[in-house]
Amino acid sequence: MEAPVPEPVSVSTRGSAHSSGLARFNAWPRELAEAALLECCGSSRWALRLAAHRPYPDLDTLLAASDEAGYDLAPADISEALAAESAPCLHHDAPRAAHLALRAAHAAYESRFGHVFVICLDGLRPSLHVDQVLAAIRTRLAHEPDEERSLTAEEMRRLARGRIIELVTEAGRTPDPFRPVAYDPQ
Q1: Which of 15, 34, 54, 139 is least surrounded by CB atoms within 10 angstroms?
Q2: How many other β-carbons are positioned within 10 Å of the β-carbon of residue 130?
Q3: What is the pTM of this model?
Q4: What share of the chain is helix, strand, coil (3-state, %, to 5)?
């Protein structure tokens, strides 16, 4: 039985919920925007492209640009992004057996495909995460490498979307989330 796939993160820009955060993101110096975007997706090419195309008029446009840039990534760019990812893990209070099962599943996946397992868990209750991850790894271990590469790229795009939403939301909450720090060598 194939594990259920959560729906993509949806965004409602009704009422300009993210407009102040997006305005701040659009106004950041390019280097800061690129650094923040690299936290959303570890591909330098992806981050450079999104930062260079600012300003974005709304969050939906930024997310569409993210998707487009994600579809255009070369295999080397995807490998770079995957190298920046870490495997989904459990809360430290989870049972030891769950930690062991997850560790073994990740090891089997990485051995088969040569990279960390990625999955977007947006929209799922945290209590379902371990079951979803284990079921997805089990299912995806049966994939051919080309099929898995395609699915991994899609999961990376979904992760980037969710992280961009978080980035813009956080930028709207704090006056200067990436305030430059003056360096004084004295």
Answers
A1: 15
A2: 20
A3: 0.82
A4: 60, 0, 40
